[in-house]
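Dear colleague,

Thank you for sharing your sequence with our group. We've completed the structure prediction you requested, and as agreed, I am returning the results in plain text so they can be pasted directly into your records. Please verify that the sequence below matches your submission; if there's any discrepancy, let me know and we will rerun it promptly.
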Amino acid sequence: MVPTGLPQLDSILGGGYPNRSTILVVGPPGIGKEALGYWFAASGLKEGDFCLYITRLAVSEVKEDIGAFGGDGKGEPMWMADQGGQIKCDISDLAGLSIRIKETLRDRGAGVRIRVVTDILSSLLMLNPPDTVYRFLAQLFAEVKRYDAVIFAILEEGMHLTQVQAAMEQLFDGVMELRLHEDGLKIRPLLRIRKMRGLPPRPGYFLFSFTGSKMEISAYVK
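Please find the predicted structure tokens below.
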């Protein structure tokens, strides 16, 4: 198992994300999906893993957001970004993007555990036909799983047709959902493990909240 960077989430998952797996987090904008990726990458840097962060944004923008969630700035992933990274991220060029990711992992990933975090999936689906993105991901996942690697990606809920989102979820080994639930006059942020390789179905929801540099997770009881 690969630690998530959040002990309470590790406990729910039986130790972390499965080895050699692909994890998708789905939820509306602004709910905190990216924070799960930040903590996953930070955990890997502390453990000496090779971390690749692939983003449609500038590195400075991501770092600013990491700071808002209590990031201490210790250690740096390799950045594949629109601006400021070691590698240029061009989301309009799927073939080139695939080559750059594979070359980076081949050059840097031998003999170490790899963590890949990315926020580009929804952007790829907006710029390319869904079947093209599906083939791109299927081929990329097959290649990356030759390594001791976990890929963590986010998908913006509400931006894509239901069948497109379902197709994306089918590709991943694990799918977690973040959502806001109206409970009377209260808005409750909830987390659900939709599926996770190696775990039985977990249909129930968990409450979550952000406190400083932590994400607190607890059972949801109505």
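Summary note from our side: The helical segments are 7-13, 33-46, 59-68, 94-108, 121-127, 130-144, 162-171.

Kind regards,
the structure core
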